[in-house]
Design brief:
- The complex is a heterodimer of chains A (427) and B (331).
- Chain A is of the alpha+beta class and 427 residues long.
- Chain A has 2 domains: 40-146 and 309-373, D-Maltodextrin-Binding Protein, domain 2; 150-306 and 388-426, D-Maltodextrin-Binding Protein, domain 2 (3-Layer(aba) Sandwich).
- Chain A contains 17 helices and 14 strands.
- In chain A, strands 2-1-3-14-6 form a 5-stranded mixed sheet. In chain A, strands 7, 8, 11, 12 and 13 form a 5-stranded mixed sheet that branches.
- In chain A, helix 12 crosses helix 13 (335-341) and helix 16 (392-404) packs antiparallel against helix 17 (410-426).
- The relative contact order of chain A is 0.16.
- Chain B is an all-alpha fold.
- Chain B has a domain at 97-324: MetI-like fold, CATH 1.10.3720.10.
- Helix content of chain B is 71%, strand content 1%.
- Chain B is built from 14 helices and 2 strands; from the N terminus they run ααββαααααααααααα.
- In chain B, strands 1-2 form a two-stranded antiparallel sheet.
- In chain B, a hairpin with a 7-residue loop joins strand 1 and strand 2 (83-84).
- In chain B, helix 4 runs parallel beside helix 8 (190-200) and helix 5 runs antiparallel to helix 9.
- Classes of the chains: A alpha+beta (427), B mainly alpha (331).
- The interface between A and B is medium-sized, with 34 and 31 residues.
- Chain A: Residues 1-25 form the signal peptide.
- Chain A: Keywords: Signal.
- Chain A: Pfam families: SBP_bac_8.
- Chain A: InterPro entries: Bact_solute-bd_prot1, SBP.
- Chain A: This is Sugar ABC transporter substrate-binding protein.
Chain lengths: 427, 331
């Protein structure tokens, strides 16, 4: 190698090294301010469908119009990978300034110091105060609810009619009546009466009807007796053919509203979050009805509750807490934001905002709103479940499956569930 | 990883053996020194060009591996800094965690059943294809295809459909009047569907078997035929013994690979390892611990146990190979 070619080589090395560092710098966040002069840049993380992404982009645009000094970068991912992404970013000290979190993840993130206290930073006077408290942990407002949902029974009246059955009086119906109705519908042939899903929300409602709390501090409040009674509903549904067998149910349970029995007009009733009425109505092409959950014999409360669809939270380590708070304020308190998002993140709980956008809501949402208003006085208050609640769905599903597939007895299942659930929320 | 290792081998500069310089006049010595300087420069150049690979090795591979070793001794939630807890994670794994043992059991069944089946299948097809078939390259490619697709998300989703209550399998069974179950959602059959999926990806070992079969001299068969050995006899006495090194190679590779299976169970079970933990692969449980339960320290410890486990099994494989693998050169 002669000197000149050596020189060339070193030049090449230096240039490529420079290119690599340059590329690296572009790839990173660059600290925020680098991009647009004195604009402050914050990131806003959320999960959801493509439709939500479009709406959120519009809302961000609107916010930037009103706050020209703030540049918001939407950080979108699908639900399956959302928490992994957020947790990894928090671990890397690169947490998004504003994060969407749902209620079961709240204690995990707040308790581990990842979230900022928003008390006094985000105006919350117009929000539903009872719902607002669900974003508090140890008296600190770590999270602002985006909107609410209720876990309820959704039925397809036309399917019921075809099976020569009538819509029940939902203000007084019991679980036994529900099972009986499901059996009769299936018996008429053609469709299945009901589909079930081992959703913790259902267990929570059922427990409340029996005077038990789902969580009691950092312990499970639900008793083994209640669990067994709850599982016997599943078992009786299967035995009477009111619902599909365990394998088929597990299969449907793994899919979303679009592939459910209700969504494909193959079933008459199912339990869903009220905001899923939209997707269910669309995929079935039918007019569906929201009903109260059936009650346990002699229950004094419906056990139903309003749950925030999700929360807006701010990172404890955000470099721009004021801007982050401003974005959250805009999202929950500004009618312009609600005018775009409508019920995408649950029905708004800000009374003023809701009044402003009420007429813009599509008919299905109006129906949900009417339903929520109707049952409002019967609702139980909601508190954020303890740390580890994110795993509850998995634990409940697994133990329910083991029982329904005959791997364990109800007693064993109840003991195992309580042991695993207690371990998850204690840790 | 294998690819990058072989890369490194191929780019390592070849060095000519350095000859001992005999006593020489001063003029020659200078030339030798110049040659040495030249060599050193060449080596330096080589390292510069190797640098990207070394950076990759240390930053992307060795660094994280060492970090995970450290993390395996900590309680690490991702959201808070890690705190050292000594051997707690390892202790918990073997004494308290039933799901860990369940996942180990599921994975072991999966490996023990699916690997031999897959290899037998691959060998059978390789033998069939070795018959001097017309259009061999075409068949070879067709049978290799599943190997390329097998680990993919798309196939896993397809699998869920095929083995669903209203899937292809049940439609076929329906023709014979048999009512099938939801194969992937029944804990008794779910793992079976994953084993079938694994066996189906027999292409890679098949291609290696094919190459191995080509290495066996035709003259052996001719001699055997002259002696009156039947086809079956020839297979047991010539083909199989001469193929044992290839079988061994495939066995080691597939055991390592299938212990690390993840995608299939992740997609087919919807990320839960269900129904009722019947498809809870080791790596899936590791992932659930790390990213769903926020026990990253525990997950790191699990990764190290898996590493030791695979290393141990591979070691056992190698020791056992002494007794059944036949290399032509040994007596």
């Amino acid at each position: 190698m002669n000197p000149s070619s050596r020189k060339k080589m070193w030049t090449a090395v230096v240039v490529s090294a420079a290119l690599m560092t340059g590329a690296g710098a572009c790839g990173g966040d660059g600290g925020g301010e680098a991009a647009g002069g004195d604009k402050v840049r914050i990131t806003f993380a959320y999960w959801g469908s493509d439709a939500r992404q479009k709406l959120t982009d519009q809302v961000i645009q609107k916010f930037e119009e009103k706050n020209p000094t703030i540049d918001v970068e939407g950080d979108f991912s699908n639900w399956d990978s959302y928490y992994e992404k957020i947790a990894t970013k928090v671990a890397a000290n690169d947490a998004p300034d504003v994060m969407s979190i749902e209620i079961r993840g709240l204690s995990e993130y707040a308790g581990r110091g990842a979230l900022a206290d928003l008390s006094g930073k985000v105006p919350a006077a117009d929000l539903d105060q009872q719902v607002l408290t669900s974003g508090q942990i140890d008296g600190k407002q770590y999270a602002i609810p985006t909107g609410v949902n209720a876990f309820s029974m959704i039925a397809n009246p036309s399917v019921l009619e075809k099976a020569k059955q009538k819509l029940p009086d939902d203000s007084s119906w019991t679980w036994d009546q529900w099972i009986g109705l499901a059996k009769d519908i299936s018996g008429a042939g053609g469709v299945t009466g009901a589909e079930y899903n081992p959703n913790p929300a259902w267990l929570q409602i059922f427990a409340a009807q029996r005077g038990e709390k789902m969580y009691d501090g950092t312990k499970m409040g639900v008793s083994a007796e209640t669990l067994k009674a709850w599982w016997s509903i599943h078992q009786r549904l299967i035995e009477t053919k009111g619902s599909p067998d365990a394998a088929k149910s597990a299969e449907i349970g793994a899919t979303g509203p679009e592939q459910s029995l209700l969504g494909t007009n193959a079933g008459a009733m199912g339990m869903w979050w009220s905001n899923q009425l939209n997707a269910l109505s669309k995929s079935s092409g039918q007019e569906l009805t929201l009903l109260r959950m059936p009650k346990a014999e002699g229950a004094s409360t419906s056990g139903m509750f309003l749950q925030p669809a999700m929360f807006y939270t701010a990172s404890a380590k955000s470099e721009h807490p004021a801007e982050a708070a401003k974005l959250i304020d805009f999202l929950v308190n500004d009618p312009d934001a609600a005018g775009i998002l409508l019920s995408d993140r649950g029905l708004p709980t800000n009374a003023k905002v809701l009044a402003a956008v009420k007429d813009k809501l599509p008919p299905v949402d109006q129906k949900t709103l009417a339903f929520v208003d109707q049952v409002k006085s019967e609702l139980s208050p909601i508190v954020a479940p303890p740390k580890g609640a994110l795993q509850m769905e998995d634990i409940l599903k697994r133990n329910t499956e083991e029982l329904l597939f005959g791997k364990v007895t109800p007693d064993q299942a109840a003991q195992k569930f309580l042991a695993e659930a207690n371990a998850a929320i204690a840790g | 990883m294998y690819a990058s290792m072989s890369d490194s081998v191929s780019v390592t500069p070849e060095r000519a053996p350095v000859a001992q310089p005999p006593p020489q006049p001063p003029g020659r010595r200078r030339r030798v020194r110049q040659v040495n300087v030249h060599r050193r420069r060449e080596a330096r150049t080589a390292y510069v060009f190797l640098a990207p690979w070394f950076i990759g090795l240390f930053v992307i591979t060795v660094g994280p591996i060492l970090a995970s070793l450290y993390l395996s001794f900590t309680d690490y939630s991702l959201l808070e800094p890690a705190t050292l807890v000594g051997l707690d994670n390892y202790d918990k794994m073997f004494t308290e965690d039933d799901r860990f043992l369940a996942s180990l059991k599921v994975t072991t069944i999966y490996v023990v059943v699916s690997v031999p089946l897959q290899l037998a299948f691959a060998l059978a097809l390789a033998l069939a294809l070795d018959r001097g078939l017309r259009g061999l390259p075409f068949y070879r490619s067709v049978y290799y295809l599943p190997s390329l697709l097998g680990g993919s998300v798309a196939i896993a989703i397809l699998w869920r459909k095929i083995f669903g209550t209203e899937g292809l399998v049940n439609s076929l069974l329906g023709l014979f009047g048999i009512e099938g179950t939801g194969w992937v959602s029944d804990p008794d059959t779910a793992l079976g569907t994953l084993i079938i999926l694994h066996v189906w990806t027999f292409g890679a070992p098949m291609v290696i078997f094919l190459a191995g079969l080509r290495q066996i001299p035709q003259s052996y068969y001719e001699a055997a035929a002259v002696d009156g050995a039947s086809r079956i006899r020839q297979f047991w006495s010539i083909t199989l013994p001469l193929l044992t090194p290839i079988i061994f190679f495939n066995l080691v590779l597939e055991v390592i690979k299938s212990f690390q299976s993840f995608t299939q169970s992740f997609i087919v079970s919807g990320g839960s390892g269900g129904p009722a933990d019947s498809t809870l692969f080791y790596t899936l449980y590791l992932y659930l611990k790390g990213f769903k339960s926020y026990e990253m320290g525990y997950a790191a410890a699990m990764a190290w146990v898996l590493l030791l486990l695979i290393a141990g099994l591979t070691g056992v494989n190698f020791i056992a190979s002494k007794y059944w693998v036949f290399y032509g050169d040994t007596k």
